[in-house]
Design goal:
D-amino Acid Aminotransferase, Chain A, domain 2, 364 residues, single chain, alpha+beta, binds pyridoxal-5'-phosphate, nine-stranded mixed sheet
């Protein structure tokens, strides 16, 4: 049976302060007035669903998540629509991925209808936190973690689900900035049979030393290669990759079980095919990237994800070398896919794939 949510209204921040935040929200810096919490216990299942004031969680220092890191999360957005409404982009896809992550981390699955209902309720309640500027949206961050108190390493018998919302601006304030990537030869992100395909908090913790290595080499982010041959390009720490070749073929690394199945990646495959591109999911070697960038056979490389949509990649650096794409700007394929996706998300073009989930604003 679907969860029913008890509502405990928040006093909320002063409207003037909220408006100041919404004028320049940044990314994930400020949070709306409410949050959703739902509790799970092995004997009782999901219960105590609440919409309550945003605020600190109180946890015993012996809580399992602090020790074994049993934690997963998601990220998707609600967008102001051209007709004045509000809609979320593919929340069902994030609900499905959340359930797959839960399965991998021995956490209970939250039914998709409850996941989406929680998001609907939070967005409706905190509608005043929806920023209205260019490329702005309300970012939704569901997460789940083990709350059993005890140091034994075993699946938690108590779990908490939390959903928070953060008004966000364009990821790159002055338009998509071409990035430079560091090829990590020292660290790996994921291994066959591991947790790479799950949105597991530990994957991100494990990537931070290589992110620091990237910064030390003057790069913005890290490209992870496969752990077995150290040859095949997988993804960035938080975005999937696409390659555009001079014959018009669009290629993205195939899903091998070690790559996170991005909702943006999946959506762009559909949009690119709709625009007449041949899209191929296959292995891409780091040498194909280096050589293609040098010879010009590779015309565009871009990263994609919910937060930054599409971001061009200009430069690849590794220990002892670098290669820079001929064009310093966003390429035509990247730019046209980027605007096609944003037009759907902001309700400026027809939603032919049924991706947008309208948030009912009735009776508000
Ligand atoms: C490791 C990783 N890869 C790819 C993505 C892109 O996924 P999505 O398009 O669903 O945001 C993300 C972001 O969620 C990520 O964390």
């Amino acid at each position: 049976m679907a969860l029913s949510f008890t509502v405990e209204p928040a006093a909320g921040v002063e409207p003037a302060r909220r408006e100041a935040i919404l004028a320049e929200p940044g990314f994930g810096q400020a949070f709306s007035d409410h949050m959703v919490t739902v509790v799970w216990q092995a004997a009782k299942g999901w219960h105590d669903a609440m919409l309550r004031p945003y605020g600190p969680l109180s946890l015993d220092p012996g809580t399992t998540v602090f020790h074994n890191g049993q934690a997963i999360f998601e990220g998707f957005k609600a967008y102001p629509q051209a007709d004045g409404g509000v809609a979320m982009f593919r929340p069902d896809a994030n609900a499905a991925r959340f359930a797959r992550s839960a399965e991998r981390l021995a956490l209970p699955a939250l039914p998709a209808e409850d996941f989406v209902a929680a998001a609907d309720l939070l967005v409706r309640t905190d509608l005043a936190w929806m920023p209205r500027g260019e490329e702005m949206s309300l970012y939704l961050r569901p997460f789940m973690f083990g709350t059993t108190v005890g140091l034994t390493v075993r699946p938690a018998a108590d779990v908490t689900f939390v959903l928070i919302a953060s008004p966000v601006g364009a990821y790159f304030a002055s338009g998509p900035k071409p990035l430079s990537m560091w090829v990590s030869e020292k660290f790996s992100r994921a291994a066959p049979g591991g947790t790479g395909a799950a949105k597991f908090a530990g994957n991100y913790a494990g990537s931070l030393a290589s992110v620091r290595e990237a910064y030390d080499h003057g790069c913005d982010q890290v490209v992870f290669l496969d752990v077995v041959e150290h040859r095949w390009v997988e993804e960035l720490g938080g975005m999937n990759l696409f390659f555009v070749f001079d014959d018009g073929t669009v290629v993205t690394p195939e899903l091998t079980g070690t790559i996170l199945e991005g909702v943006t990646r999946d959506s762009l495959i559909t949009l690119a095919r709709g625009q007449g591109f041949t899209v191929v999911e296959r292995k891409v070697s780091i040498d194909e990237w280096r050589d293609g960038a040098r010879t010009g056979r590779l015309t565009e490389v871009f990263a994609c994800g919910t937060a930054a949509v599409i971001t061009p990649i200009r430069q690849l650096r590794w220990a002892g070398g670098e290669v820079t794409m001929a064009s310093g700007d966003i390429g035509p394929c990247s730019a046209s896919l980027r605007s096609a996706l944003l037009d759907i998300q902001y309700g400026r073009s027809a939603d032919l794939n049924g991706w947008m989930h309208r948030v009912s604003l009735k009776d508000l």
